[in-house]
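User: Predict structure, ligand 4'-deoxy-4'-aminopyridoxal-5'-phosphate.
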Amino acid sequence: MIYNFNSGPAMLPPEVLQQASEAVLHYKAHQSILEISHRSYLYEEILDEAKSLLKELCELNDDFEILYLSGGASNLFAMIPMNFLTKNKSAAFVNTGYWSEKAIAATKYFSKVKIIASSENRHYNYIPSFVTKNIDAEYLHITTNNTIEGTQWKNFEKFNIPLFADMSSDILSRKINYNQFDFIYASTHKNLGTAGSNIVLLKKNLLEKINENVPAIFNFKNHVDAKSIYSTPSVYAVFISLLMLRWMKKQTLKNIFANNNLKAKMLYEAIDANPNFICEVEKEFRSQMNIVFKAKEKLLEEKFMHSAASNEIINIAGHRTAGGFRASIYNAMPMAGVEKLAALIRNFN
Ligand code: PMP
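Assistant: Predicted complex:
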C-alpha cells in the first residue's frame, strides 16, 4: 500500500475511494453522480446529510448556519471582509504564518487590519500569546493549524469580539468546542474530502451584519437563503465530503482523536531521537496534523527522500517556501503508514 503524506489534496480511506468511484458509473436513478442535477432530490439528500453530519460531529448548537460553497479556503479570505468590513472598520489578526498572511492581505482590500500578535520573529515556529481583553475590531481571525509551519493552537480563550477561524487543516481532528467560535471555515481537501469545495459554519446573528452592497455570489446571506445552491455546486466534491463524514462517524471521533494523538507522538519521538533530523517547532505548539522537520545536512535530505519513496512513502517534501520535510497525517492516514515512516526516520543514518 502507498502512503500519501501530501498536505492536501490528501489521502482518502480506500472505502471512500471505492464508493466514490462506483458512484461515477452508477449513482442512483440510472445516473452517474457526475450527471445529477444540483436541484434534484438526489443532491438535496447528499447536502442535507452532509450538513447534518457536520452538525452532529462538531456538536454544533442551533445558532449555526452550515454552508458548502465552491472553491477553496482562499475564497473565504476575501469573502469574509467583503461581507463584514468597510474602510473605516478593522479586523484583528493573529499572524501565525503563510495562510494567516494570505487572509490578512485579502482583508486589506476592504478595511484596516490590526495584527495583535505575530510569531514572524521566529519563523512562525510557535503560537504567540497576547492580551485577550479589549480588542478593538469587528472580529478576531486566527488560523488554528498552520499547515506549512507545523504549528497548532492548543487552546482557545474567550474574547470580547467574535472569533473567526480558518480550520482548513485541523477541523474534526481533535476535541474542540466549536460553539465558542462565531465563524469557522475550511477547505474540504484535507479532513473533509477532496478539492473543489469549502465549508462555512457561521453564527446566524452574523447574517444581520452583512454589508448591503455585496454581489450576490459573494454574499453569505444569499448562500444561506439559496441553501448552498445559488450557483451550480461541485456536487462530486460535496458527495465525497459526505462519504468522508460517514467514514468518520463509523470510526468514531473518539478513536480518530486518540489515533491522531498517537500518530503525531510517534513521528515527533522518532525525529527527536535521531540526531540527523530536527523539528524546529516549539514542543508545546507542534501540530498533530502536519509534522514539519528537516535533515540537519542538506545532502541527507535527498537520500531520505529516496529511501522514503522506495518504502512506498510519498509526498513528504516540505512546502516550496519552507523546504525540508512535511508529513501530513490527517484523519485518513492509517496508523500503519505512520509506523512505517516513524521507523524509517528513527533508523535513518
Ligand atoms: N488555509 C490553510 C490553513 C491551508 O492549509 C490552505 C491550503 N490548503 C488554505 C487556507 C488555502 O486553501 P485553498 O487552496 O483551498 O484555497
